[in-house]
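[agent] plan:
  1. take the single chain provided in the ticket
  2. run structure prediction with default settings
  3. attach structure tokens to the ticket
  4. add a short note for the reviewer (M.T.)
[agent] executing step 1
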Amino acid sequence: MKRLVQLLLVVVVVTMAFTGVVGAQDARPYRIVVVTHGQASDPFWSVVANGVQDAARDMRVEVEYQAPGTFDMVAMAQLIDAAVASEPDGLVVSVPDADALGPSIRAAVEAGIPVISINSGSDVAEQLGVLAHVGQTEYEAGYGGGQRMAAAGVTNALCVNQEVGNAGLDLRCQGFADALAEAGGTSTVLAVDLADPTGTQARVSAALSEDETINGVLTLGPTGAAPALAALTADNLLGTIPLATFDLSPEVLQALADGNMLFAIDQQQYTQGYLAVVYMTLYLENLNTPGQILIPTGPGFVTQETAATVIEYAARGTR
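[agent] step 2 finished; step 3 output follows
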């Protein structure tokens, strides 16, 4: 019986949804479902959810936010299918794997449900038939990171990928590799497990020990940055090997402020969640569409010079 209760609690957390609470007289008559691949354990996605929730309140619409408990494309496709079956007025999705999720997204479009994609999927948004994509172009963001690393003197780097198979993350590593290669450098992808920070730290330490020519580390999110930071600290390499990351978290921002991280590539995930709901509401109410399919939210770069200011906003869950 105890085991059953535990399992039920896990299911509740994994499929947890929230609703923008508004007064009955003021509420717009729209229900929007948001399905992303982000897990509750990832601080990045909690900020996306904050943007969704705040937009639901400000736009006075009902919004449900859902995500699988792990990086699981089968489970995510099932969530999208269930959302489509519930006949929402609009659907917002992230697209980390177009091959796995494309049929479910196209089914929504064919059913007459307007769809906006966020975060990952900029390269496939138009062919999937979505109204718009709110996010950054991942290859270009990785390329920009590689240029900055090369300018800092990095010639052999690790690209630490916590979700190998996520097309957006793979593009980040590819862009990073291409920029380093143009500067005469090289990079290697190090696959780690999002849910195993201790194992990630050990794998980063092992990679640095096995190849002493590695002189730079790029992680693809805070869940990779924190273990990498711990590895460099434990190995007395902090400040010797430049470390940078995609995306922000309180720990990342503090490391930047302290000078222990070179830069963080900021795609402004709060904006992704917020604007998706705003644009969907405008489309439903007034048939407004953006002037182009890509609505860029990044990349931007947070450095030691700007980290202190951004920390103030991160503390309230908006960066």
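[agent] step 4 note for reviewer: The two ends are 41 Å apart (CA to CA).
[agent] ticket updated
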